[in-house]
Each structure stands twice: as C-alpha cells, then as structure tokens.
Write a structure and sequence with these properties.
Elements (H helix, E strand, L loop, with lengths): L1 E3 L10 H8 L3 E4 L5 H5 L6 E4 L10 H14 L4 E5 L9 H10 L6 E2 L4 H8 L13 E5 L13 H6 L3 E5 L5 H10 L7 E6 L7 E6 L3 H7 L6 E5 L8
Parallel strand pairs: 1-4, 1-5, 2-3, 2-4, 6-7
Antiparallel strand pairs: 7-10, 8-9, 8-10
The structure holds S-adenosyl-L-homocysteine (SAH).
Length: 236
C-alpha cells in the first residue's frame, strides 16, 4: 500500500492509512513521514528509512523500488509511508508503476497534503470567498531559468490567486524576483510555515518584497511552505 501519512501531526493520517499501517510487515518510510506513527509500530515490523537505503550505481529511487518489490515478493505486506499525499511531489506514481510492472498490486491511500493543511493549521485558508478563485501548488526545486523547469512563472505572476510553494526556501530570492517582475504587487501578503502541524512549527508573516530577507534573518529552513496571495494576510 502506498499511504499518505499527512503533514506531520500523527493524527492527520486517514483512517484507512492507519488501519493498513497497523497490518504492515514492512514499512518503508520517508523523512517527512510522521515519525510518531513509526514509534507506534510493533517491534516485529521491519522499518526501513528510505533516505538510508544503500545504493550503488542505481539511482536512489530505483533502490527504493527494489526494496518494495523484494519484500512484497517475499510475501510481506509492505506499506510505503510518505509525508502528506503520495501523489503531490512525492514520486508516488513512479513507485506504483514499478510495483505493477513487477506484478505487485498496489493500494493507494491518499493523504492530507501539507500544501493545504499546513497553511490551514497556521490560520490561513488557501481559498476564501471574494479573495480568490484559484490556488496553485508549485514545486520550487528548480530555479526559474533551469532548462528542466516546467513552471510558467510569468503566468503565476499575472494570476491573482494563491500560490503555495513547496521546496522553495533555498531559491526564494529567485521566485520573488520573477513574480514581482511579472506583475505581482510587492505588498502581496506572504505566509511561511516551517515544520507545520508539529510541535516544532514556526510561522512568519511577510510581504512578497521582504519575504526573502525575513526568511533568511529568521533562519527558516526546509521543510517549509510558502503561501503567496491575499489569503496569507489572515492570522497575521
Ligand atoms: N507529498 C508531500 C509533499 C512532498 S514535497 C505533501 O503532500 O505534503 C516536500 C515539501 O513539502 C517540503 O520541502 C515542504 O515544502 C513541504 N512540507 C511537507 N511537510 C511539511 C510540513 N510539515 N511543514 C512545512 N512544509 C512541509
């Protein structure tokens, strides 16, 4: 089963996800999967940290796929536990393809994505009547001018609605620059949440213009969500 573990708070996994987790022989967990859920597992469950799977010349993702397939072929019930939702920037569908190609059926259990839940629990709804009719979830793992980038930053700049940036702390200066150049007002409200929904949660309210400097001076580090748009003013 490919299970979304939710954004961090152990109570935000789905009922189905928790039930399947309780039946697992093997759990292959991501770094962002709620760690408390792992602590609840019985001692005879094999827990594999996906970030620590040794891999040689194969890519890390191939090594993870190999472990999933290997344990399933050994007759084990394997739960692949991810943070948030498994199909939101989590390579979940690649794992589904690898398993089904190997003849292993996969149950997909959606999760509460951090893209919506982290702002929510920091006091910010991603939509609000009269403020926006769209919200876009964007990966910031590549710079706007990266040849492999698939993001239309100019379109995001002219759009009025909410932008939810994931994996964007490292390159926030570049994203802010291209959004302001493209027409987003410099005073657009911004919310930044690090370690959302957990006891380590930190939040920061800023404007588009000063967000990079505030993020650096506050020492905000990944994992963090950056919400840009009128809704980000809530809870300030
Ligand atoms: N599948 C996940 C997202 C994986 S991408 C989901 O649906 O939530 C990883 C990025 O998600 C992180 O870099 C960060 O931007 C964001 N993220 C995940 N959990 C978070 C949390 N608890 N607080 C803040 N950001 C989080």
């Amino acid at each position: 089963a490919l299970v979304g573990g939710g954004p961090g708070d152990a109570e935000l996994i789905t009922v189905r996800g928790r039930r399947l987790l309780a039946h697992a022989d093997v759990v292959v967990a991501d770094r962002l999967a709620p760690q408390e859920l792992l602590a609840e597992l019985s001692p005879d469950v094999e827990v594999i940290d996906a970030a620590k799977i040794p891999y040689g010349r194969a890519m890390a993702q191939d090594a993870i796929n190999d472990v999933l397939i290997d344990r399933a072929r050994a007759g084990k019930f394997v739960v692949r536990l991810k943070g948030g939702d498994p199909f939101v920037f989590a390579r979940g569908y690649e794992e589904v393809i690898a398993c089904t190609d190997a003849g292993i059926p996969v149950t997909v259990v959606p999760g509460v994505t951090s893209a919506i839940a982290v702002p929510a629990l920091a006091g910010v709804p991603v939509t609000h009547r009269g403020l926006n009719h769209e919200f876009v979830v964007v990966s910031g793992h590549l710079a706007p001018d990266h040849p492999e980038s698939l993001v239309n930053w100019d379109a995001l700049a002219v759009m009025k609605g909410t932008i939810v940036l994931l994996m964007a702390v490292e390159r926030i200066e570049l994203f802010v620059k291209i959004l302001i150049q493209g027409g987003r007002p410099a005073d657009t409200p911004v919310l930044v949440v690090q370690h959302g929904t957990t006891s380590a949660q930190r939040t920061l309210h800023a404007t588009l213009a000063d967000a990079p400097e505030r993020i650096r001076s506050d020492g905000i580090r990944p994992p963090a969500i950056i919400v840009i748009g009128p809704v980000a003013a809530f809870g300030a």
